[in-house]
Write a sequence for this structure.
C-alpha cells in the first residue's frame, strides 16, 4: 500500500491527454491499488491517474457512505457511450484543495470500461446521482479537462480559486454548454422552491468551510 502524491491544479500534467492502457500488467494493478489507497486517504470520492502523475486512462471512484463498507469502482480505458439530461452540480477536486464551485453536468451517463482484471463492464448512473457526476468529473481528467472548465459562473469560480491561492480559470479551456445551461435554467424556473433549497445548501456548505 502506498499513498501517492496528488498533483495540484497549475501543473501541466493535468492538461495532458492520457493514453489508453494496452495491458493490465502487475505495474498497472499496483498503480490502481495505490490510487484507491490515495483516494481513501484523502477522503475523496474519485481519483484519476493524471492526478498522481500518470497520463493513463484509468480512474477510481467510491461513492458509498463513508460510515459503511467500501465499494471501490475501477475504470480502465472508459468510454461514455450515452449521456442525457442536465443538472447543476457543486463540485470540488482533490487537485483543488478546498475549492468548490457550481458546474454543469449531464444527468444520466452510461460508461463502458475494463475492470482491474481487464474484464469489460457497463455502468449506468442516473438522475444526477453522485456516481453520474463523479464519472463525468473523472473521465474529464483523462482528456486534460477539469471541473472548473464546466463552471456556470466564471467570476464565482475565479473568486474561489483566488481564495485558496490556486491559479485562475484558463479561459481557453472553458467549455461552452448552451444546451445544458438552458435545460438547467428551465428546471430552476419550473422548480423555484427546489432550486432555492439547493442554493441554500451550497451556501451552508460554503459557510461551513474555514
Ligand atoms: Zn478531479
Amino acid at each position: 500500500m502506498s499513498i501517492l502524491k496528488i498533483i495540484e491544479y497549475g501543473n501541466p500534467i493535468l492538461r495532458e491527454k492520457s493514453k489508453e492502457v494496452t495491458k493490465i500488467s502487475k505495474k498497472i494493478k499496483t498503480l490502481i491499488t495505490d490510487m484507491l489507497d490515495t483516494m481513501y486517504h484523502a477522503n475523496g470520492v474519485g481519483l484519476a491517474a493524471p492526478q498522481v502523475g500518470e497520463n493513463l486512462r484509468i480512474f477510481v471512484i467510491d461513492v458509498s457512505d463513508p460510515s459503511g463498507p467500501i465499494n471501490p469502482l475501477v475504470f480502465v480505458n472508459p468510454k461514455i457511450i450515452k449521456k442525457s439530461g442536465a443538472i447543476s452540480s457543486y463540485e470540488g477536486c482533490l487537485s483543488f484543495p478546498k475549492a468548490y464551485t457550481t458546474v454543469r453536468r449531464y444527468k444520466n451517463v452510461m460508461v463502458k470500461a475494463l475492470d482491474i482484471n481487464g474484464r469489460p463492464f457497463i455502468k449506468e448512473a442516473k438522475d444526477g446521482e453522485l456516481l453520474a457526476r463523479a464519472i463525468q468529473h473523472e473521465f474529464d481528467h483523462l482528456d486534460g479537462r477539469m471541473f472548473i472548465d464546466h463552471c456556470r459562473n466564471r467570476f464565482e469560480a475565479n473568486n474561489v480559486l483566488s481564495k485558496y491561492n490556486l491559479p485562475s480559470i484558463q479561459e481557453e479551456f472553458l467549455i461552452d454548454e448552451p444546451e445544458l445551461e438552458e435545460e438547467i435554467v428551465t428546471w430552476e424556473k419550473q422548480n423555484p422552491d427546489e432550486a432555492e433549497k439547493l442554493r441554500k445548501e451550497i451556501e451552508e456548505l460554503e459557510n461551513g468551510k474555514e
Observations:
- The two ends are 31 Å apart (CA to CA).
- The beta strands are 46-48, 58-61, 73-84, 87-93, 96-105, 108-114, 120-125.
- Helices lie at 26-41, 130-142, 154-163, 178-190, 192-208.
- The first strand starts at residue 46 and ends at 48.
